[in-house]
Each structure stands twice: as structure tokens, then as C-alpha cells.
Specification:
Blueprint lengths: L3 E7 L7 H14 L4 E7 L11 H4 L3 E2 L5 E2 L2 H9 L8 E3 H14 L9 H14 L7 E6 L9 H14 L4 E8 L2 E2 L4 E2 L2 H12 L6 E6 L5 H11 L6 E5 L7 H7 L2 H8 L12 H10 L4 E9 L9 H13 L2 E9 L10 H4 L5 E3 L8 H13 L4 E4 L1 H15 L4 E3 L7 E6 L2 E4 L2 E4 L11 E9 L4 H6 L3 E8 L1 E3 L4 H6 L2 E6 L6 E6 L5 E4 L14 H16 L1
Parallel strand pairs: 1-6, 1-7, 2-5, 2-6, 7-10, 10-11, 12-13, 12-14, 14-15, 15-25, 16-17
Antiparallel strand pairs: 3-4, 8-9, 17-22, 18-19, 20-21, 20-23, 23-24, 24-25
Helix pairs in contact: 1-3, 1-9, 4-5, 5-6, 12-18, 14-15
Bound molecules: glutamine (GLN).
The site of glutamine has 11 residues, from α15 and β21.
């Protein structure tokens, strides 16, 4: 069958969970046996989100093939249990960059370069590029209808739908029905305006996903159908749920996938959905037994969007272990001016220091690591969390007082230092302190070989693994022997032996640091073994209390 395109836009306000909606629709179509791909078009002008603060835009998600993308790609991977590609995410900045590069190269010689057709063509090329025989391509357009940046993207998807034929394209608009307490009513007017705004751009929405805290009445559905010019049955309630993993069932019950298939004239009886795994997951989430308390020592308070994949990975593993996880977000700066670590960590049996950049907050993070090391509390350091564990160990156990990372101090004993050269996909990559900041990290999947008879080996149960990376600095192997003498060992490294990937403390119940980001590969149906093992260790520690 020729690929069908579903365009997901958002109206009224941002943060409506368009990404979750796109992921859920994808999951439902996949449950019916279709081959699905989801793509994200972000209108902002950064080339990619790699240089944006995660506080503004949520975490930077990294794909297997090394693209720094929007966090929504993480939702897509977790919901579809399949890898996204670097070609599944593009920003306005990258689109304009491509167009301007083409102009310089002379690709448009003689022509005036314009929004239409040059920029719109570039967007359309992205929408249809690199297809792998998919039945459905879901394209989520970031931002909110009405944003200046979004305009040319809306024009491009309008044109695209016209090019492939209206019956091969569907426009789904995610919107908000605010509840006004005083009159005890859900309000439809902002949605009517948003749909009209889309219509001005030549796009008639085919379906509304109405986010609200309460279900709407038949009267409200009637009103929306009338004013938005949309079939009644395509006006779908999307009320808040306590876990996003309940969305597939919710949308399925509301008939979303059924209506999508009807839109495309596909007989739904020929594609019976298998919703079993989603039903079981939802049941599991509601019947967890033991509690486990884990501290996350972070720079951005409890901004869980900034640590989205980590938060999700912890939950996937907790559910698989039948544990009700409570995450205690500890703002690292609150640890800086006190030595009373007990008051912060007394009630947890596991400590995580996740990935991070820059010096701010590192003193507190290292205090947390010291506490975990000395008090035998399970510790799991991810990327920066490994690097800081190495610095802490070098300073406090080996006695190298000026041990540091060259990321923020020169001169020092560089126990973590800039990697100036490495091999990626058979080619030599080079970096220096002055290299550009954007897109120049060690990114994406790299292999690692694990030493036998180690904690890492018992976790993975195999010798070779592949994990995703996003960092510029590496552990300096010149100090390795000194660490080993005191019990800290490198138990995983790149197959050529050059780059340390995993460290562990032999004399500790669970003290593990990894240079990569395992959280990017966890899905609800395939939790990551490090998180599962870490939580098991935390549960054991809970019992010993
Ligand atoms: N800032 C460190 C580096 O660039 C760690 C990065 C990370 O934690 N993702 O190497």
C-alpha cells in the first residue's frame, strides 16, 4: 500500500503532549500490524537542540545513529519499540541552513530563493526522505498553530497533502478544552479559533484530540463539530491519565485508530489490533508491591522533562521488578553548603548522578557520590556521573588533590580530559578546546567490550554491547593503575581498548559508572538491565535497613 501521511499539529497552548499523541497513534497502528514511522519537524531556528538548555526544551534525545534530537523522539522509540533515525527529526534552522548551503553551491543559479517553493520544497523533501516501505508516516509539527516560525511548515504540509492526494493524508489537531470552574464548563472557543487559524493556512483538521481534565458532553462535541467542520465521531476526548503508558488503551477505546483507518478507507476488520501488551502494562502499573526510594542528584531541580528518558527508564525497570519507585529529586546546589548528607539521603537506598555539562553544581554531586561510596549505598553514575565519580575517587581515595576534568579547569591533574581524536564509522574524528560546540560530541552508538567476572558482565550477561553516547570528555587512562590499586576498575572499554566505558568499585555492593546513556534504549517492554539491576540492589539495601 502507498504510504499514508498523518500530520499532527497543536493548538491553543504548548505542552499538550502532541508527541505523546503521535507516539500513541503510532503504537495503535503498529498493534494492528502496520509498519509505522514517526517524524518530528521543529520550527525553531537552532540547527538541532544539542546546544539548548534542557530546562527550556527538555532533554536532548540521542538516536542510535548519533543525532541530537527533540525529546519526542524518545517517546516514539519507547512507544513503538523501534529505533528512530537521524533523518526523523529536523528543525527550521536546519531547513534554512540546507537551503542557504544550496544557494551558495549554486543549486538555484539564476533564481530568487524564496519561502515558496525553496523552503517548502526542502521541508517536503524531508517528509518523504529515506522511506523504508512504511504504511504510515506520522509527522508531528512542533510549536503551536499561530507561531510565526510554524507558518512555512504548515504551508509545506498543506502542499504535501495536496501533492499526494487528500485521501492519502490526514490532519490531526491536538487542542485544549479549558475547564472554567465558575461556570463548571469546558470551553470550546479557543479550539474553534485554533481550527479557524489552521483553515486560514489551507488546512482543514480531520480529527481533534481534545485535551481536558474532564470528559466533554455531547453538547460540547456537537458545538465543536459544527464550528470546526469536523465529523462528530472524529472529535475525540483525550482526558488526563496518571501514566502516559495508559494512553494507547485510552485512545483505542475512544476509537482513534479505527477512525484513522476509516479516513484512509482501510478496512479495520482486516487489521485486528493486539492490545494485550498495553493492557498488561497498564494493569502492572496499578498493582505494584514494594516501594523503593531513589535519589537523583541533578542541576535542574525536579524538571523531569530535562531527564525524561532517565525518568522513564527507571519506571520501566521498577515495573518489571514489581516496585513502586519514588524518585527524590535533589537539587545539587542545596548540598553545597552543608555536610549533613544524612538529612538528604537517609530515606533513599540508591543514588544516581545523571549526565550533565558545566561546572555549576558539581561540588554537590560529588558530595552525593562520596556519601554513596562510603555508606555502601548503591550508586549509578551516567556519563557525567561516571566522570565525577572518577574525580571524587582520585581526590579522596587516591589522594590526587587537584584531580579534575579539563571541561572546567586548566591546569589540573586531568583525570577526565578532552578526547582529541577517535574513530567513528571508520573515519578519524578530531576535536580541540576551540571546536564548535554544536554537534561535535561523541554521539550515538559505540561498541563496548565487557570484562568477565565483573558486575557489568553479570548485568549484561554478554561480552559485547552497544550503547549511545553524548559527551566530549573521556576518562584519562594514565591514572587507571592507581585507581585499580584502591579497588576502582575499568570493566568495559571500546573494543580497541582505548576508551574506558564502564567503571566499578569492587568493594561496594553496587557502584557503577558508565560513559554512555543506557536510558535512551529502555522501553516499557524491554527495560534496560542496568536500571533493573540497580533497583534490585536498592531493594536489597532497603531490606537490610
Ligand atoms: N560534560 C561531560 C562531557 O562532555 C559529560 C556529558 C554528559 O554527561 N552527557 O564529556
Amino acid at each position: 500500500m502507498m504510504a499514508k501521511f498523518i500530520f499532527v499539529t497543536g493548538g491553543v497552548v504548548s505542552s499538550l503532549g502532541k508527541g505523546m499523541s503521535a507516539a500513541t497513534i503510532g503504537a495503535l497502528l503498529k498493534a494492528r500490524g502496520f509498519k509505522v514511522r514517526i517524524r518530528k519537524l521543529d520550527p525553531y531556528l537552532n540547527i538541532d537542540p544539542g546546544t539548548m538548555s534542557p530546562l527550556q526544551h527538555g532533554e536532548v534525545y540521542v538516536t542510535e545513529d548519533g543525532a541530537e534530537t527533540d525529546l519526542d523522539l524518545g517517546h516514539y522509540e519507547r512507544f513503538l519499540s523501534q529505533n528512530s533515525h537521524s533523518s526523523d527529526s529536523i528543525s527550521g534552522g536546519k531547513i534554512y541552513y540546507n537551503v542557504l548551503m544550496k544557494e551558495r553551491r549554486g543549486d538555484y543559479l539564476g533564481a530568487t530563493v524564496q519561502m515558496i517553493p525553496n523552503v517548502t520544497d526542502e521541508i517536503k523533501e524531508f517528509i518523504s526522505s529515506g522511506m523504508l516501505g512504511e504504511d504510515f508516516v506520522i509527522c508531528e509539527v512542533g510549536g503551536t498553530v499561530g507561531d510565526i516560525e510554524s507558518l512555512v511548515f504548515l504551508e509545506a504540509i498543506r502542499q504535501y497533502a495536496n501533492d499526494i492526494g487528500r485521501r492519502n493524508a490526514m490532519f490531526i489537531h491536538v487542542t485544549l478544552l479549558p475547564y472554567i470552574d465558575k461556570v463548571k464548563e469546558l470551553k470550546t472557543k479557543p479550539t474553534q479559533h485554533s481550527v479557524k487559524n489552521l483553515l486560514e493556512k489551507g488546512i482543514q483538521a480531520d480529527m481533534l484530540l481534545c485535551r481536558s481534565t474532564k470528559p466533554f458532553s455531547e453538547g460540547e462535541r456537537e458545538k465543536l463539530a459544527l464550528f470546526c467542520n469536523i465529523e462528530r465521531s472524529n472529535i475525540i476526548p483525550a482526558i488526563d491519565v496518571d501514566s502516559v503508558y495508559k494512553l494507547p488503551e485510552l485512545y483505542y477505546t475512544a476509537g482513534v485508530d479505527q477512525r484513522v483507518l476509516e479516513h484512509f478507507n482501510i478496512k479495520s476488520e482486516d487489521y485486528v489490533p493486539d492490545m494485550n501488551k498495553w493492557e498488561e502494562l497498564a494493569k502492572k502499573i496499578d498493582s505494584l508491591k514494594d516501594k523503593v526510594n531513589i535519589a537523583l542528584v541533578v542541576k535542574y531541580g525536579d524538571a523531569s522533562d530535562a531527564y525524561k528518558s532517565l525518568n522513564e527508564a527507571l519506571h520501566h525497570s521498577a515495573w518489571a521488578e514489581n516496585l513502586d519507585i519514588n524518585i527524590k529529586w535533589i537539587n545539587t546546589e542545596t548540598l553545597e553548603n552543608t555536610d549533613d548528607m544524612d538529612s538528604f539521603f537517609r530515606d533513599v537506598t540508591g543514588i544516581i548522578v545523571p549526565g550533565g555539562f558545566g561546572e555549576r553544581g558539581t561540588v554537590g554531586k560529588m558530595k552525593g557520590i562520596s556519601y554513596a561510596r562510603v555508606s555502601n549505598i548503591p550508586y549509578f553514575g551516567i556519563c557525567f556521573g561516571l566522570q565525577l565519580a572518577v574525580i571524587e575517587f582520585a581526590r579522596n581515595v587516591v589522594g590526587i588533590k587537584d584531580a579534575n576534568t579539563t571541561e572546567f579547569e586548566h591546569p589540573c591533574s586531568p583525570v577526565i580530559s578532552l578526547m582529541t581524536e577517535w574513530i567513528s564509522k571508520g573515519e578519524i574524528e578530531k576535536r580541540s578546546q576551540d571546536s564548535d560546540k554544536g554537534g561535535t560530541l561523541r554521539l550515538g552508538s559505540y561498541p563496548c567490550r565487557i570484562v568477565e567476572n565483573t558486575l557489568a558482565h553479570s548485568i549484561y550477561n554478554t561480552e559485547f554491547i552497544h550503547e549511545r553516547h553524548r559527551h566530549r570528555y573521556e576518562m584519562n587512562t594514565n591514572y587507571e593503575a592507581a585507581y585499580a590499586e584502591k579497588g576502582l576498575h575499568v570493566t568495559g572499554r571500546s573494543p580497541d581498548g582505548v576508551l574506558p566505558e564502564i567503571i566499578e568499585l569492587k568493594t561496594h555492593p553496587f557502584f557503577l559508572g558508565v560513559q554512555f546513556h543506557p536510558e535512551f534504549k529502555s522501553t516499557p517492554f524491554k527495560p534496560h538491565p542496568i536500571f533493573s539491576n540497580f533497583l534490585r540492589a536498592a531493594k536489597r539495601a532497603e531490606k537490610q535497613k
